[in-house]
Fold this sequence. Notes:
It holds the Pfam family SseB. This is SseB family protein. InterPro entries: SseB_N. With about 450 residues, the chain is an alpha+beta fold. It has three domains: about 30-180, Murine Class I Major Histocompatibility Complex, H2-DB, Chain A, domain 1, CATH 3.30.500; about 180-330, Trna Endonuclease, Chain: A, domain 1; about 335-450, Trna Endonuclease, Chain: A, domain 1 (3-Layer(aba) Sandwich). The chain has helices spanning about 30-45, 90-105, 150-160, 170-180, 195-205, 210-220, 265-275, 290-300, 320-330, 335-340, 345-350, 390-395, 405-415, 435-450; strands at about 5-10, 55-65, 65-75, 80, 85, 115-120, 130-135, 185, 225-230, 250-255, 260-265, 285-290, 305-310, 315-320, 355-360, 375, 380-385, 400-405, 420-425, 430-435. Strands 2, 3, 4, 5, 6 and 7 form a six-stranded antiparallel sheet that branches. Strands 15, 16, 17, 18, 19 and 20 form a six-stranded mixed sheet that branches. The chain has a five-stranded mixed sheet with strand order 1-10-11-13-14. A hairpin with a 7-residue loop joins strand 13 and strand 14 (about 315-320). Helix 1 (about 30-45) packs antiparallel against helix 2, helix 3 (about 150-160) crosses helix 4 and helix 5 (about 195-205) packs antiparallel against helix 6 (about 210-220). The radius of gyration is 23 Å and the shape is globular. It starts with a strand and ends with a helix. Mean pLDDT is about 85; it is low at about 1-20.
Amino acid sequence: MKGKLDYVVFNQKITLFMSNSPRFSVSERPAQLQQALNEVGSWMLSKVSTTGWNELVLEAKPVGDSFFVRFTESYDERDVTGTSRLLDDEEFATEQLSRLQHASYDEAEGAWLSVTVVVAAKNWPTPEYQVGAAYNRTHEPQNWDGEGGFSARDVREHLEKFPRTDALPAWADAKINRGRSLNVADINDEESPNPYLRDALVQFSEERSERALVNVMRQLMGGDILLDATNSDFVADGDNPFGPETTVKYTFATLEGYRGLCLFSSPEAVLKSHQEQGREGEPVMVRENSVKVMMDFLNNQEIDLLVIDPGSPTMSVLERPQVQWVLGTPHNPAAKMALMGQNMQQLLSALAAPSTFLLLGTPAGSIDRQPLIIDGEAEEGRTLLTFTSAAEVSSLDPTLEVTSATSMDVLRFAVDSGVDSVRINGLNPYATLPIAQVKELVELVDAASLGIK
């Protein structure tokens, strides 16, 4: 998208009025609640292939029309907790969790803000199952893996859908009426919060192609991004000049009549934009998780575009369908973050966690439907290529067909297929694991699931 770029400033917090209301009558709720709980429990059982566990625990919290979920398998000796992920809008679990939220609604206390569903098992190897749930209607949902907490807008949307007669919890009232503290970054910090994104933007400026833009999106799947909050209405709180009563106002731009939220890859880019708008003094930067920013964008219909480094040679524009594509397909953000940080222990943990995914690329038209395996030099042997997101696959080869499976199932396939190594992502940052290391990880996870020390 090309066109004249005009800067405008809007208040970040926009109240949306929802037409939804709790969809079950008081008399219908008990039966609907039990049915939804049973369906969620059955879905949880379908997601685990191991035996010998005592409990399966699903934690869920709403975001827009979907839910963040985190899965834990509990054994005698240890708990195995996966990373959080956003359910697809059309997934079976999304509908059943929504049904569970509506069915558990109470006019006084409202609907749950987070839920913990537990499937308990006993009498292995022919277990008996029991399912139950705990509903949190008052406490602020936890931030698990940097996916971000409830915003003022999230609270407003929830209350429009599920009004309550009881007083609001103090934290929710504070978010609605007083905004939030800012994660202010240092303008004098010369480093980019995401050097890989910065490099991808430079490449995009040299080759403005769809493939180069996908490369930008894949690097947004990890790390942080900067926003310009200079025009916020700041209210100090003691020594903190950016206290919780601050009204946050980010910088937006209009491009061919479309409204775009301005994002920045470096302090230098923020400063140049600030100066081009004729502002004096130093800008106030806010540092946010880039995946959270993209998710907030999808949930805010008042914003049309994401504009990265506006007005600069590296400017790139992301439209809503592009962001929906990259977030709507299975992805493993924890593994991506580990690769960016060159943290092998974190990478292995992200692969071993239950309910996490890896993707495979299959050559188009392949008769045997086998995933891509690279034949390297003699000392390298054959390498199974895996990916942390669909954008990673498309950046390497847009003709590849994408399939996904749990991370451990992909690693088990690698061991069984006789390859010599497994590579996580085709382009930088990536890591190659010798098959002996992969086999050891699989054996450790399988032993833990069976309660073997």
